[in-house]
Amino acid sequence: MKLALIAEDKLGSLPKGAKPVLFDVPASVTPAVLASVGDALSKALNVLGEKLAIDSDKLASFLIEAATPPTELVRERYERFRTIDTLMATTEWLTAADIQSRHGGHPRIVADWKRRGRVFSVRASDGRDLFPAYQFDSAMQPLPIIKKALEAFGELPDPWVLVAWFHFPNGWLASGPANRRRSMPPKDCLGDEARLIDAIRQRTESYAG
After folding, report:
1. Confidence of residue 141 (pLDDT cuts 50, 70, 90)
2. Are the C-beta atoms of residues 145 and 196 closer than 8 Å to each other?
3. Are 118 and 85 in contact (CB under 8 A)?
4. Interatomic CA distance for residues 141 and 124, integer angstroms
5. Mean pLDDT, to the nearest integer, of 94-116?
6. Which of 71-75, 103-107, 115-119 shows the lowest mean pLDDT across its residues?
7. Which of 62 and 148 is assigned the larger pLDDT?
8. Three-class SS of residue 125?
9. Secondary structure (3-state) at 182
10. What is the distance between the terminal CA atoms of the chain, rounded to a whole angstrom?
């Protein structure tokens, strides 16, 4: 017997008499991940056979051990971690305590700013929220452009995407003479609201396309 993982809208292509088993799969799961899961399930069926029906714990354990991350997923994770290491080392960070200390120790001010979309943060490996310092002015108040930028971006599942976008040079924000134009990091262009928002829109439109 063959096991195939196919999309629900492709069920009509199955051979006559086939009895498909449907699984709920998050939309974020890529075909490469599904292929890895399929390989693991095939190994589990060969090794455990009928025991699959009576020992769900053993099945779960086997699948976890047998699943091999696809090469593209490993590469993607590696590049992500390498980027995060770069950002951690080259960004000036503030903790919530750092910010609160400039406002009389007010315990809720940072949480309120985050809730209202005025600032953003990432979670460090030690569990602390870290805020890029370029979001704040000299009085430790959020720059108005940050709220507008976050609204232009919309909801993002990974805040590190925001940090990376602000950090690395952006071709839409080039400056200098025509023969020596240089791409600028968005974090260095926070005073140019129109160009910054346009650069965000260029990004989101290119992804949508």
Report:
1. very high
2. yes
3. no
4. 22
5. 93
6. 71-75
7. 148
8. coil
9. strand
10. 40
Q: What's the whole-number mean pLDDT along residues 69-80?
A: 71
* pLDDT score for 123: 93
| Rounded alpha-carbon distances, angstroms, from residue 171 to 159, 182, 186 | 21, 8, 10
Tell me which residue of 20, 160, 188 sits closest to 88, measured CA to CA: 160
Rounded distance between C-alpha atoms, residue 150 and residue 208, angstroms: 17
Interior CA angle at 192 toward 188 and 197, to 5°?
Answer: 100
CA distance 66 to 43: 7
Residues 81, 85: Cα–Cα separation, whole Å: 6
Give Cβ neighbours of residue 68 (< 8 Å, ≥ 6 apart).
36, 39, 40
Q: Which amino acid does the sequence have at 120?
A: F
DSSP code for 168? S
Q: Closest Cα partner for 21 from 9, 36, 5?
A: 5
Least confident window among 14-28, 47-61, 88-102: 47-61
Cα–Cα distances in angstroms (integers) from residue 97 to residues 22, 124, 129, 154, in the given order? 49, 14, 10, 27
CB 136 within 8 A of CB 162: no
Distance CA(23)–CA(43), nearest Å, equals 18
Q: What 3-state class would DSSP assign to 137?
A: coil
Instruction: List b or e across 80-115, with b for residues whose CB sees 16 or more CB atoms inside 10 angstroms.
Output: eeebeeebeeebebbebeebbeeeeeeeebbeebbe
